[in-house]
Amino acid sequence: MEEYARDPCPYRIVDDCGGAFAMGCIGGGVFQAIKGFRNAPSGLNKRLIGSVAAIKTRSPVIAGNFAIWGGMFSTIDCTLVHIRKKEDPWNSIISGAATGGILAARNGIPAMAGSAIIGGVLLALIEGVGILFTRISADQFKNPSPPTEDPAALGDPVNNFTFGPSNNKHYQ
Amino acid sequence: MSDDYLRKPFSLAPPPTVDEPQPTATTNYTPATSTFSSAPVSPYLNYDSRFLQQAQPEFIFPEGANKQRGRFELAFSQIGTSVMIGGGIGGLAGVYNGIKVTNALNQTGKLRRTQLINHVMKQGSGTANTLGTLAVLYSACGVLLQYVRDQDDNVNTIIAGSATGLLYKSTAGLRKCALGGAIGLGISSLYCLYLLAQESNNTNSSPKFL
After folding, report:
1. Which region ranges are annotated with the description Disordered (chain A) (predicted)?
2. What are the φ and ψ backbone dihedral angles of A2, each rounded to 5 degrees?
3. Which chain A positions have a beta carbon within 8 Å of B81's beta carbon?
4. Per-residue pLDDT averaged across A66-79, rounded?
5. Is A24 in contact with A63 (CB distance < 8 Å)?
6. Which of A128, B14, B68, B167 is deepest in the core (most CB within 10 A)?
7. Which residues of B touch A (CB under 8 A)?
């Protein structure tokens, strides 16, 4: 599989939206398949039919919700990058909270606040875990301390080594 | 730096300046020793600046790799594009339908506004979900085919398009399933014909498989 790198900012929105939709579609498909299988009337054939019906009706809706979340999150993230001129974990946390709030806008102020808190905490958790993993893995790549250097080993400072004809000039 | 030094034959000697009508001071290579004529220059600085290619980006590809992005790299942006286009079209249709319905029912004010929002959300998400699901199916088929056949060409596009149509209508009965497959086959072959026509028009540009 080729290296998958993220696109630069305005195009990242489309990419994230698509990635979230694909994730929701496939993940929601698996989830709804199990759920439809369990909730259907007994008999393997009926259970399979129920599973397929659940996938058909529910998984595009889940995928659409995922896509809206991803697209909105990425849009706010890119806007924050543009405004604040830096990319840090706070961007993700703020845009997570803002996304949660905006998407619950039609359910009233208390629901907005709740969703915003949930979104912010979720994104803070994700960013925190990412930073934690970076810290842990950074210890493995720590360089050994270099040996102390003795300047006497470099030789006579008067007759120093040059490439050109040996007239002791400094070239730069 | 202009890039016309790339087209000239390479030589370590300073190039002849007779056939150049343009101002020679900016484009021509001047050896470093001529500018600092008396003092000897460090050997690290005394080389032809044409070794430094700055006019075009340089990429190093692994052995046997082609320059195109594979289907997996394109899949997410394709899905996202189709979701967004679907949302836009569905939203516009929702505005139209909402205005029509609210006019017919004589709804005004807050009621009309809420009904309009309802229509836009419902139709927009519906169309976006349909188009996005189609794109997911198409991309999944395309990526699978690319890994199975180990190449990326028009045949993949056609097979993936037909498979998408067949899969999407697979539960609606044999006739509709066949119809969906035929529609997918038709659209993907039209697209491939368009690509081939474009490729024969200008042979230089490499085609980009969607």
Report:
1. 142-172
2. -75, 165
3. 14, 18
4. 91
5. yes
6. B167
7. 39-44, 69-70, 72-73, 75-84, 117, 125, 128-130, 132-133, 135-136, 139, 171
Q: What is the pLDDT of residue B170?
A: 86
* A18: closest CA of chain B, how far (Å): 3
Decide if B210 contacts B73 (C-beta within 8 A).
no
Cα A116 from Cα B115, distance rounded (Å): 26
Cα dihedral: A28, A30, A32, A35 (round 10): -140
Chain A residue numbers with beta carbons less than 8 Å from the beta carbon of B68 are none
**What sections of chain A are H helices per DSSP?**
9-39, 44-84, 89-103, 109-140
**Nearest residue to B189 (alpha-carbon basis) of B159, B152, B158, B153:** B158
Could you tell me which residues come within 8 angstroms of residue B97 by beta carbon, excluding any fewer than 6 positions away? B119, B123
- Could you give the 3-state DSSP secondary structure of residue B10? coil
Output the six-digit token pair for A152: 């006497």
Interchain pair B117, A4: CB under 8 A: no
Q: Which tokens sit at B2?
A: 């202009």
Contact A61/B at CB under 8 A: yes
Query: Which of A21, A52, A56 has the CB atom closest to B80's CB atom?
Result: A21
Write down the residue that tokens 């005394």 correspond to: B46
A100: closest CA among A110, A80, A115?
A: A115
A60 near A25, Cβ under 8 Å?
yes
Handedness of CA B174, B179, B185, B188 (dihedral sign): negative
- Of the residues A25, A26, A48, the best mutation for testing chain B's interface (the one with the most B CB atoms within 10 Å of its CB) is A25
In Å, how far is A4's CA from the nearest CA of chain B?
A: 7
Distance of CA A71 to the CA centre of its chain: 13
What tokens does B55 get? 């006019």
CB contact under 8 A, B80 and A16: yes
A18/B135 CB distance under 8 A? yes
What is the ipTM metric for this complex?
0.71
Whole-model pTM over 0.80: no
Look-up of token digits 């008999």: A43
